[in-house]
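User: Quick one: structure for sequence A, then sequence B.

Assistant: Sequence A:
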Amino acid sequence: MMWNDPGSEAVVLGSWSRAENYAISIIQVVNHHGSGWVNWNIALNLAGGPNWAGNLVDAPIIINEEADEFYKQPMFYVMGHFSKFVVAGSRMLPSSIEELDSHQVHTAAFLRPDGPIVIVLLNTGEAELDLSVDVASEGYATLHLPAKTIQTVIIAGDHQQAKSHSKTKFTTKTQSSDDDRS
């Protein structure tokens, strides 16, 4: 999946739509049993280069050589949801979305080697959602996911019994939030 639309500008400073596509790409790769996800172009110039492929693309960090500055793009912060909380040795856990607007919520879950479970949730929809996360034998956790957001949930505890990703499943049920929420 590309986060640059074909025919569009190579670099768009502050683009959250590209950050969404970036997050979806990472989530899809790990949910299809990818053991990692690599961004070969973590830092590029304002034109979107240079890079190994010789084309011009957006990147999490954009370097402005003339001003001696760099800019952290929204993609940079998306990467943080994975690189900060999903540590080396973590295992992917199956996760799924059930019920209302499940195509607008993307999720990836991981068991960290030190015991906590990490769930990354991306809401690409225009509506905020209340989620009920079924954590297998642990019970339910309820959380609020605003529209157009990415959130990381860490479920503390010693979940070492979930050694195989076939033994623990996380189901997230969604329902629209009330419009009169204060």
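Sequence B:
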Amino acid sequence: MTRESNIDDLSSDEEAADREAPTLALPDKIRAQLCDHARTGTPEEICGILGGTFDPDQSRVSTAYPATNVADTPRTRYRIDPEEQLECFERLEAAGEEIVGFYHSHPKGPARPSETDVEAATWSDRSYVIVSLEPVAVGSWRWRSSDAVDGESGGQFERERIVS
């Protein structure tokens, strides 16, 4: 399998900023598992939960838990089945793992968050891994919440460096 990256040609300033970016340790075996899941789920988006060791700036994935996408329009959105999500959280806890983040695919889109992804993100400091199939790439982003404004919470995605 070709190794996917979320870093394009970077200037020296961008390289320095990348070294300071949050980091997600995503073993090659799990990266391949996510890509395979995305391929088998095409043309719909696939989704799942990542377990391992969580830190707001440096997390490590040890397990990927595929889940059913129950979105109304699964070709362009994802929503993890709530019952499966709860069961997965219980399995993570029983295994002594933490919730590192979530993953989903963009079968025909880039490996970066869409506007829909921004609107749906809620888990502060967690990783959101996105698998693109055209072209094949894996990107990761941390959701950084901002204080509520007029009763609505907000935030933004911060690009995350992926290491093996």
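The beta strands are 23-25, 47-53, 58-67, 98-106, 127-133, 136-149, 152-163. The radius of gyration is 15 Å.

User: Thanks, that's what I needed.
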